[in-house]
Amino acid sequence: MKKKKLLLTLVFCSALLQLSLAQNMDVHLITGNTDQYFLTEVRTITFSGGNMNINKTNLTADTTLLSDVSKITFGSLILSVPNVTAENNEIFNVYPNPASSTFTVEISEETLQIKILNAFGQLVNTVNTKGQKSLNFEIQTNGIYFIQLVTEDQIITKKILIVK
Question: Could you tell me the CA-to-CA distances from 40 to 12, 27, 58, 111 in Å, in that order?
Fold first, then answer.
């Protein structure tokens, strides 16, 4: 049985106005370096097996580990967020990551709610936590999602990869 590896393909077309107005894509790495791509030279971007693959018009491809990426920008459009700091990492945990569809969020502090956003920043789910310490979620569509933990004084974001 052939394993499904395709998670998300971004196609650059006029339907995505912000992408069509952007001239380049910046891949910001957790090391502080930035890889820049001119969109006229990029055919597709796919996310599979914990990697981001950039397929170019010259028929070459670049592969980057998703865990090394802090954010991806197309002009002013941000498709990812910076990784959390070690201090915030202790407030909540998301596992397994990557997940096939079901994952758990464990919370160690009092929170107000958890929000789940897709890679485009669209709200997928919101749950009021009211003293809960462990919540299970299910997402059926492959891709990168962002789990936002909302407390009284901060919003902490972690990313999760859904791979079927």
Answer: 9, 16, 11, 44
- Domain covering 86-162 assigned CATH 2.60.40.3080 in the classification: yes
Beta bridge partners of 104: 95, 136
Using DSSP's 3-state secondary structure scheme, residue 1 falls into: coil
This prediction's pTM: 0.49
Q: Which of 120, 116, 111, 109 is nearest to 160 (CA)?
A: 116
pLDDT of residue 3: 33
Domain ranges of the chain: 9-78, 86-162
80: CB partners within 8 A, 6+ apart: 69, 70, 71, 72, 119, 144, 146, 159
Residue 102, both tokens: 């079901």
User: pLDDT digit string (tens) for 107-121?
Assistant: 987 788 999 988 888
